[in-house]
Design goal:
By secondary structure, the protein is an alpha/beta fold. About 35% of the residues lie in helices and about 15% in strands.
Amino acid sequence: MKNFTEINNASNEKSAALPRRKFIKMAGASLAILSFPMSSAFAFESKKQTVKNKIVWVLLRGAQDSLHTIVPTFDPQYKVLRPKLSTSFKSPLLSLEKGFALHPSLKNLHAWYQEKQLLPIVAVSSGYARRSHFDGQDFLESGKSDIDHDSGWLARAIDIKQKRALAVSRSTPISLRSSDSVNTWYPSNLKSSDDDIYSALAKLYQNDELLKENLEDGLEVRGLVGEQKRNKKKRQGKFIDLTKACAKLMVGEQGVDCAMLELGGWDTHNNQGTRLNNKLAELDNGLAELKAGLGYEWQSTIVIIGTEFGRTAKENGTGGTDHGTGSALFLAGGAIAGGKVEGNWPGLKPQELFERRDLMPTTNSFSWIGSVLSQHWHFTKQELMQVFPQVKAYDHVLLRS
């Protein structure tokens, strides 16, 4: 079994006069690209083609507690280290193999596990050796032995394979920086004048079916049709809404090949039991909507869910946990050969903990992600070295045969 030091070392033509019908189509497209700057073909193309292998990268910002998510019920030290947190679950834990169990809020993920579409991986680390949220996230997103704020591992991957990506974010996260094949999309949290514009256009176009149809197509790409029909409710950027929109922008012939989603709020220094009940349910429900929105394309999709580092093995005095080291990684999707728990469990005895306080990482997150790239996007060893220069992919078979 590798120790943390070994893991650390291993370690993106105008025309003056246009026919009316062509103008209408372009106008409809322009509504869509107000928020999502892609071609009109992306917005309206509906032809079918062979489904492409897709990847969705979900970053949980704030150091999500793996020990409260994938619970080692078999380890007697768990209740010793967490006398209050171990009894804070509001419902029975959801059984996995090897004596592990999922948090009860992860009902959809557990159903995926039973359908062999979820692969939990315990005791992982990116190789980042400190406990700073910002540096830890930057390290995980960069994918290099030294943080590169201008180049991310997913950006390098899509450039090598000439794929297109979507960042569901207000700005381009490090994971997708350095590539020109990245678009960003995020709903406005402010009451926008766009809503009034679209309402006025809807009234103006109500007697013209062609204009009306293209307006609605544009609104649908922006994720606004639902709001218009619900009395123009303001979009709040909730995770479940982001995953719904993400799925819409990934499906079809012109859909992007991969996407990145972010969910914050995992820095649970206090009241962790209640806070994680809510956060994990938010994650679970959002991912369920992602699957539903992808439809049949879910079968060719892999979702990678990770966080910058874990939390202390021992609970603190305020019902929470502090910044730690070893964490967990989830691989999900119709393309995953799941239904089992991966990773090497190091134990929770004092001498088995990293610096006698944290879960000891035994495998590297980048090597697992590298395995996904090798098997799902067919990266060669040489190509993979350009993405993760400091690690090699594992030999574990992760995909359905």
